[in-house]
Write a structure and sequence with these properties.
The two termini are about 20 Å apart. With about 180 residues, the chain is an alpha+beta fold. Helix content is about 25%, strand content about 30%. The protein contains four helices and nine strands. Strands 2-1-5-6-9 form a five-stranded antiparallel β-sheet.
Length: about 180
């Protein structure tokens, strides 16, 4: 994990979020997440958790996989720039969706839908992308971030942040990597 937490700034932006797991045979499962929040990130070296919100019915398979092995991969993509990060954890648990999660989910919906409208999407479409049943059964996947990867398409996609992997830092081309 990078020594600083600057990568967390993306999580406060208008973003699309996916959460993924895998079963014992390494078959992937994925679900849309409806927001996230960071808990305990007071500064570098401080323990923290990332909490992502999913609808139980939509995420049954990924929730079962996470419950079975604690492995999670989340992807956060800025809806304007497509800047994307993947954050992995190895201690994921399924938690109750609490009042603070509900506030964060609502704020995420508004922020991201408003950004889509500003980009030219029709308001009903932008808000519909994040719509959920009125009494949706949300649960929270909570995990400690362990590995962070650049996922923005283009040079550097797939590079682990906090590790000298680019050509400038290593003195070799990406294709020369073992």
């Amino acid at each position: 994990m990078p020594a600083d937490h600057t990568y967390l700034a993306l999580l406060a932006r208008p973003i699309a979020i996916s959460v993924a797991g895998r079963d014992a045979e390494l078959r992937p499962s994925v679900a849309h997440a409806y927001g996230c929040r960071v808990v305990g990130a007071a500064g570098p070296g401080q323990p923290m958790k990332i909490r992502v919100f999913v609808l139980r019915d939509e995420a049954r398979r990924v929730l079962a996989d996470i419950a079975a092995n604690g492995e999670v991969a989340t992807v956060y993509s800025d809806v304007r720039s497509f800047r994307s990060l993947q954050i992995k954890g190895h201690d994921a648990v399924i938690d109750a969706f609490d009042a603070e999660d509900a506030v964060a989910r609502t704020a995420h919906h508004r922020l991201t839908a408003d950004e889509l409208v500003a980009l030219g999407y029709a308001a009903p479409l932008a808000h519909g992308y994040f719509s959920t049943p009125k009494h949706g059964d949300f649960v929270t996947v909570s995990f400690s971030p362990q590995d962070v990867f650049q996922q923005t398409p283009g040079p550097g996609a797939g590079d682990k942040l906090g590790v000298a992997t680019d050509a400038k830092a290593t003195g070799r081309k990406k294709a020369d990597r073992p």
